[in-house]
Amino acid sequence: METAKNDSLAISQVLDTYFKAIYEGDAQLLGSTFNKGTLLFGDIKGVPYAKTLDQYLDGVANRQSPKDSGKPYKGEIISIDVINSIAVAKVSVQMYDFIYNDLLSFHKIDNRWLIVNKMITDTSK
Rg of the chain over CA atoms, in angstroms? Predict the structure, then answer.
């Protein structure tokens, strides 16, 4: 039980970095929260979304950051479920004119929790 609590706390800290990096548009910091082979899937505005991690980080690096947009931003952890060395976090990210719903799969690699898959969809406000 204590291990799961500690793992949830460690994942929360990764998510704090994830939210900060998205807000600031810091692709390098954001990349540090992911495993190199991560793939991203989902839909945005009803359009299928599929990217490699490099494509995603390039997009983050080359867009106006939420911080610079002047629009509201909020990252929120909805839930974290940990089973041994795997976990799933459900998070909500409000930025630009959307609320993004992310399902993030984590794996504990070399004693470090990393995002290994990102599923994303959006809802309008």
Answer: 14
